[in-house]
Amino acid sequence: MEEYGSTDVGENVMPETAYRKWTGLVQDGFFALGGFPSVLGCIDGTHIRIQAPTRDEPAFVNRKGYHSINVQAVCDHEERSPTSISDGFLLGDSGYPCRPFLETPYMTPQGNAQQRYNDSLCATRVTIERTFGRWKRRFHVLHSEIRMSPRREYQIVLACAVLHNISILLNEPLQDDNDNPDEQPTVDTYGGRHDGRGIRDHIANTFFSS
After folding, report:
1. CA distance linking residue 197 with residue 96, whole number of Å
2. Which of 5, 33, 49, 150 is 20 to 30 Å apart from 142, CA to CA?
3. How far is CA 107 from CA 8, 98, 121, in A?
4. What is the 3-state secondary structure (H, E, C) of 4-17?
5. Is 4's pLDDT higher than 50?
6. Mean pLDDT (the chain, rounded)
């Protein structure tokens, strides 16, 4: 993994110490959910229903036959949208390609390690599905139909994502006390082929073989 002296977020810069603390908290949070190491976010897409636009109308018809915006999002362990992803992995479903920065399930797992890998990934990745559900319940306009121009609809979706993050920050639930929290194992430096499948095999064999 590369070393970063600071992390740019728009015009802001996150100092390295704060960034390292943030990544540690996120990785530990995800590890507690499903036992998957070094996860910084879960990625997926969801459809936001819209009225039929007057221009390029066929381009907005999804495979289910209604008009929508296809929103792709990444969430952290607290169901917020993070501002930076590095020094870790995203988890996606089988619709995504397996990449060094994006780990996906085995289509036909071979052996116990690969099956446990899939189970852990699924238990962790469900966070993004819960995020979409809570996001749409919090802002009913996302769960019904947005009746504006596509440009305004994009702005509304983005604003709802920002407000969702703020609402979690201001109303963070109390965590249950745990005298023996799960400790995330240290991920050894990977020296094999640097592609998604090679890293996926390394994770499965290292953390899920026993």
Report:
1. 12
2. 33
3. 36, 11, 13
4. CCEEEECCEEEEHH
5. no
6. 79
Work out the pLDDT band at 21, boundaries 50, 70, 90. Answer: confident
Could you tell me which of 150, 145, 24, 132 has the C-alpha nearest to residue 81? 132
Contact 125, 92 (CB under 8 A): yes
**Computed from CA positions of residues 74, 131, 15, 191, in that sequence, does the dihedral angle turn out positive or negative?**
negative
For residue 186, is pLDDT > 50? yes
Whole-number Å distance between alpha carbons of 155 and 161: 10
Q: Predicted confidence band at 153 (pLDDT cuts at 50, 70, 90)?
A: very high
The sheet with strand 89-91 has its strands ordered as 68-75, 39-49, 89-91, 102-103
Report the distance separating Cα 7 and Cα 75, nearest Å: 18
- Within 8 A by CB and 6+ apart from 199, the residues are 89, 100, 103, 190, 192
Averaged pLDDT, 93-111: 92
CA atoms within 13 A of residue 186's CA, in its CB half-sphere: 2
Half-sphere exposure (CA, 13 Å, Cβ side) for 61?
Answer: 6
Q: How far apart are CA 84 and CA 44, in angstroms?
A: 16
